[in-house]
Amino acid sequence: MSDLPNNIDNDILQDPDNQNDDSIDIAQLRTPIKVDLSPIYAFLGSRTTQSWVDAAITNLPLIIQDHANCEKKAAGTAMNLLFRYEFSYDLQRKLAQLIREEMLHYEQVLGIMNERGQDWIYLSAGRYAKGLLKHKRTYEPAAMVDVLIIGAFIEARSCERFAALAEVINDARLAKYYRYLLKSESRHFEDYLALAQSLCDDNIDERVTLFRDVEAELISSPDTELRFHSGVPIQ
Ligand SMILES: [Fe+2]
Ligand SMILES: [Fe+2]
């Protein structure tokens, strides 16, 4: 069994969710926080298949590497939004917090790789983000709203997959880490969705439905590459 980095519990103690909350029992923070995933499952149009979970467990180093890539990309995407849309206080504040948290996750996954003796390898991006962004409208503010909705789906799917992996992974510390991530990633999903609606006068339901269908198709259809957000593995 591989161990998480020694500083993992300290990092959990520094979780921004917990900073100003005097009521939290520090001993509690050392066990993964239970998160209600029902809003995530209701939001997503499909569930991860057993064949993806099986392939992910069989190819865990690849999934950990791609997870590291995902955390870095999540921070990078949020940083791009931070520079592009400077008019909204809410957006700036939420994005700043999100970047901080995604970079913390990135550091933690790097630590996990280091502990496991896993070298960094180059992995090309899968089809998932491209497949979603292809449907983004190209004029403002529609483009911004679509990127925020896409962000909500990526965060929700990440959460769903961390939960699925944590259930079966044969490494108690890694399972604990994936459960720990559920809290922040599920909040990221809610933040992206709330921002999308708050920055748009029109109802966004139609766009959410479109991206739900596209995302579900990317997850449920055969995929030649295995990645953290890939579809059904081709045997
Ligand atoms: Fe993250
Ligand atoms: Fe996130």
UniProtKB/TrEMBL annotation:
It comes from Psychrobacter saeujeotis. InterPro entries: Ferritin-like, Ferritin-like_SF, tRNA-Hydrxlase_MiaE. Residues 1-21 are annotated as: Disordered. This is tRNA-(Ms[2]io[6]A)-hydroxylase. Residues 12-21 have a biased composition (Acidic residues). It holds the Pfam family MiaE.
